[in-house]
């Protein structure tokens, strides 16, 4: 015990034991003894900290007093019958109580967090109303949009860079388009195909008619106009219209609360969330597109994605299996024979949000029908719970080409991300509940998104968006 490493270890062990005795002393209402232990713990921690700061090992001489004083207190604790058996029993009881309390708090936190994430900020609602009013009251806006739509050839020109976004969030979509345009080396070659719903269609058209985004071509459509989009062709549409499915999303009582609230988000009822599996139908003239979620920011020129060799695969995506959490067995129900027989549980997961789709290969391999097959098999939600990633993992299994991780950096909406990864990332993804346009957004990452919002725009100021 005289070697430097052993002195450090002995002090650390004493501190750990003393911390446990502090808890017991407080529970026994022996506050004076708890205070003495805490004071000695601080003394020992100061010694360890000092040694670490100067990067030199503790000597026997400087640590002798601290070790002796702590040993006396630990001996005194034993005399007070703070023995191991008593400690174990009390700590087990304490842990059980804390576990129960933590479970209740986590459940409440999850519910309130989900409610906050599903909230439509008043400013965004106001923006939609004002844009719609502006569209019908300003014939110049309609004329501008009509003039741009006359450039139909650009919308089908496969020598250009085609991006698609499916969203009902005008401001978020604007950030995607603006950030792409500002960081593009050749914005005149960029074409954005936006698909929204009927409620936001006019407002979306108005916004992109009154803003130019460095000459980027922007097309706005609403999915209600797609003739092929009907329940006879699209299984998920039939499921979404089912009363039991709707009850599942909006009511928490039909499965005794077994399903986590995050899987019951009504956003999954939106067809916009499922259009990513029908990209060839939405854009029949295109050969390759880059799909972007509306919660991303583009901070580099990403035209290079169109020259990435997908090696005859359909989907180019960044893999997320650096940790075991993101492998197939975490998303799918491997107790079901269909999943067990067809998919490797340790296969690497990947991310939606920035995907390169080769539509020629998609059509050749009839990928949409693969998606239909798995959707029909999951009517009872036994293969996977909810969301679009699990069916995506099944649909593009063996058809996904891994991209360099710097193309797509994830996690800015729920966790801490390595600053070096953010700096190198081409596309930053605010996946998670803490979206940058919400009050619950992560403050340290909001500036990365907000720099692409013109808060001086009259409509944004009128709607108190800042």
From TrEMBL:
It is found in: Golgi apparatus membrane. Its EC number is 2.4.1.-. GO terms for molecular function: polygalacturonate 4-alpha-galacturonosyltransferase activity. CDD domains: GT8_like_1. GO terms for biological process: cell wall organization. Keywords: Cell wall biogenesis/degradation, Glycosyltransferase, Golgi apparatus, Transferase. Belongs to the glycosyltransferase 8 family. This is Hexosyltransferase.
